[in-house]
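Quick review question:
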């Protein structure tokens, strides 16, 4: 699916925001703190049984904050299916796959679509 193929990723550290350009032309801007709140690793989700293929809706009620935990150090490709984000506090367990990231797009259009699906 084109909508789940990232063709460009930019981590804008001064703006504390990561931008992904998708194969279908859509562009997503993720505040770093949202990405950290949504970290899909077992540790952040509170156990393997809580790991999901799509983020919980209540993640979007997060509060913006700027701390070492919410600052991106590097973004590394993980095979062809996603990225690993390394955070300033050393956390690097979360593999964000394209499907998850697209489902995490905080724009109004995507949030509305997600709500209709539920
Ligand atoms: Zn994590
Ligand atoms: Zn979107």
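Suggested answer, residue by residue:
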């Amino acid at each position: 699916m084109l909508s789940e193929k990232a063709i460009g990723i930019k981590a804008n550290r001064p703006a504390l925001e990561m931008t992904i350009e998708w194969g279908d032309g859509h562009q997503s801007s993720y505040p770093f703190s949202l990405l950290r709140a949504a970290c899909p690793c077992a540790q952040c989700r509170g156990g393997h049984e809580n790991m999901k293929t799509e983020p919980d809706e209540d993640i979007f009620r997060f509060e913006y904050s700027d701390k070492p935990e919410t600052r991106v150090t590097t973004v590394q490709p993980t095979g062809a299916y996603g990225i690993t984000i390394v955070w300033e506090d050393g956390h690097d367990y979360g593999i964000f796959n394209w499907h998850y990231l697209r489902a995490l797009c905080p724009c109004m259009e995507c949030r509305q679509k997600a709500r209709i699906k539920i």
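Why it works: The first strand starts at residue 6 and ends at 12. The chain has a mean pLDDT of 93.
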